[in-house]
Amino acid sequence: MMMHPLLAAFLVILLPLSAAFADTLNPVEQAALQARIDAHEVARVEGDIRVLMSEMPPKVIPAIVRQTGSTAPDVRAMVEAAIRQAYAQQEFRSNELDLSAAQFAETKTGLAYLLIPTETVVTFQDKTYHLRSFTLAFQENGTWYLSRVAEGPTLQTLRLAYPEFESVTFPQGNSTLIED
């Protein structure tokens, strides 16, 4: 018995994203990405700058060097200082990336990437916020890199370093004040 085409289309829409996601990466890629995410979640809460810097896509520092005229070591030091300053001003209480709900896509040039729903709880100026955003994940030379895409300057720098993302519209995040 053949299934009606409309019913088949409806069932395809209802399939969980995790099933679609599972078809896009082989088990080794999934394990490597999950390991990167696990390290990221811990590093974000603990403020481990070494791990956070290792997640930065490799073309970002050279793009900032071209834009500012600074040297790569100076830019790296500037980025590390900015991360330290952010951690001095806010406390990351939790950071969770939901890889099972990731959305797989490709740029017009064929670069495959994932948008991973991300939830963060952060305290800033004695107020606690629940942030919902997306983390971009993509591979370069076999290594997974992560980048927040909801933030203006971060997104601008990413697009400067990786022009293939210029035509990609990233979903917006939001924040909610948590009542104490």
Describe, in short, the structure shown:
By secondary structure, this protein is α+β, with helices and mostly antiparallel strands.
Description of the structure:
The protein has 180 residues and is an alpha+beta fold. 44% of the residues lie in helices and 28% in strands. It contains seven helices and six strands. β3 (112-124) and β4 (127-140) form a beta hairpin. The protein is globular. Mean pLDDT is 85; it is low at 1-22.
Highlighted features:
44% helix; 180 residues; six-stranded antiparallel β-sheet; 7 helices; 6 strands; globular; alpha+beta
Q: Mean of residue pLDDT?
A: 85
Summed up, the helix count is: 7
- Total count of strands: 6
Query: Which structural class fits the helix and strand makeup?
Result: alpha+beta
Could you tell me the radius of gyration in angstroms? 18 Å
Low-confidence stretches: 1-22
Helicity, in percent?
40-55%
Describe the protein's topology:
Layout: H1 5-14, H2 17-22, H3 27-46, H4 49-54, H5 60-68, H6 72-89, E1 90-97, E2 103-106, E3 112-124, E4 127-140, E5 143-148, H7 152-161, E6 174-178
Antiparallel strand pairs: 1-3, 2-3, 3-4, 4-5, 4-6
